[in-house]
Amino acid sequence: MRELILVYHAKSGVWNGLLDSIHKWASPSTYPCQLCAITYGHVSMKREWKKYIESLDFPVTFYHLDDLPSDYPETKLPCGFLRTSNGLQELISREEINSCKNVKDLISIVKNKLK
User: Fold this and answer.
1) How far apart are CA 108 and CA 91, in angstroms?
2) Residue 34 lies in domain
3) Mean pLDDT lowest among 35-39, 50-54, 70-74
């Protein structure tokens, strides 16, 4: 059993999504969630990223900072976890996500980490 869990450094909900879209458009350099910035356009998930996560043969779950279950390890967001039969471990750090310039960079990191 494997599950990739990605956690945005953004709040959930339609209103927050709208505010985030405006923030990314108006001041991208101050937007706090690089995971959201590179995987989403102004309205929806980028096609290349969606296609990649749909190609994985295990579930991918997304959380926001306000809906992350309380039993997850405390860490800096955004980040990624991997759940296996051995438990939950951080797979991708905030620093690694923040180093990504685009979706291709993120996909490359995820692929390398999942090997």
Assistant:
1) 13
2) 3-114
3) 70-74
